[in-house]
Write a structure and sequence with these properties.
Layout (H helix, E strand, L loop, with lengths): L1 E5 L5 H10 L7 E5 L2 H9 L5 E8 L3 E2 L1 H9 L4 E9 L3 E5 L9 E4 L1 H6 L1 H7 L4 E4 L3 H10 L4 E5 L1 H7 L1 E5 L9 E8 L11 E7 L6 H11 L3 E9 L7 E8 L3 H14 L2 E8 L1 E2 L8
Helix pairs in contact: 8-9
Length: about 280
């Protein structure tokens, strides 16, 4: 089985896909992609059977490129989830001797997750976004400039860098939620599973309330709700919702009723949450 993820070596995505791979009983091959959309497109085009991509960060919120493709691509489903602690180090070349740093590179979310550190220590240094935290480390390793990256510890090992500062993220409890995506439609399952759905309502007063009331009536725990623009018209939205319940009959009845009461409905999957990684691993 071929499984895609966001490369290069040293990303949190690599840590997530390795944790998932360790749970599999069948042989698998890991393939790197340059960005999240390309990994998901790999599943759509049958280049790979599955991919592991970030969906949500506890500080920065939803990864929009992931959630939008899940919402608007009918053949994509979620079959599992991995939670990874986020621990960013400030990496420089081994030869660094204290010269003024001219540029700091990282993925946009990592730059945002380390705002307090950057404001305190490097308020006037140029920040540059990259496709991944590991790509930032790779650029630092190959550059002749005095630059730095915000990257996982493993990136320092892969690209032979050193940490000038360790654990520079704003919140030590910061975690990222990764999802395992495939084209295989999963069954609706309640016990021990999380269920994700998306739906759109009409524009009559109380339409959204009526859907949420269905969830309440069946005593289902809604752990996440987020709106995303429908793209085709300003002011129209679609909702992404996570649900948890241990009673199969309640889940089946609620989803059946929600599908009837909405203008668009997609069951994304009922799936397990795999054990997370350890702080500082990447």
């Amino acid at each position: 089985m071929k499984i895609g993820y966001l490369g290069p070596d040293g990303t949190f995505s690599q840590q997530a896909v390795l944790l998932y791979q360790n749970t599999l009983t069948q042989d698998s091959v890991l393939l790197q992609y340059n960005n999240i959309a390309a990994a998901l497109e790999g599943v759509i085009k049958d280049e790979i059977e599955e991919c592991v991509v970030p969906l949500e960060n506890s500080i920065e919120g939803t990864v929009t490129s992931t959630i939008d493709l899940l919402i608007f691509t009918p053949e994509l489903y979620i079959k599992g989830e991995v939670i990874i602690p986020v621990w960013e180090d400030f990496l420089v070349k081994q030869s660094y001797k204290g010269e003024p740093i001219t540029k700091i590179l990282s993925h946009p979310q990592a730059l945002s997750q380390c705002t307090n550190f950057l404001r305190k220590h490097f308020p006037d240094v140029l920040l540059q976004a990259t496709n991944s935290t590991a790509e930032a480390a790779k650029i630092v390793a190959e550059s002749t400039e005095v630059i730095a990256s915000l990257s996982p510890k493993q990136s320092a090992e892969v690209y032979h860098l050193k940490a000038l500062y360790e654990g520079v993220q704003d919140d030590n409890q910061n975690k990222t939620r990764f999802v395992i995506v495939s084209k295989q439609k999963p069954k609706q399952q309640a016990k021990g599973k999380k269920t994700s759905i998306v739906f759109a309502t009409g524009h009559k007063p109380g339409d959204l309330y009526r859907v949420l009331d269905i969830i309440s009536i069946w005593d289902i725990n809604m752990t996440k709700i987020e709106s995303r623009p429908m793209k085709h018209h300003l002011g129209t939205y679609i909702f992404f919702v996570d649900l948890e319940t241990e009673i199969q009959e309640d889940l089946d009845a609620a989803l059946k009723m929600i599908a009837r009461k909405t203008t668009y409905f997609k069951f994304l999957g009922s799936y397990p949450v795999l054990p997370d990684g350890k702080k500082g691993e990447a």
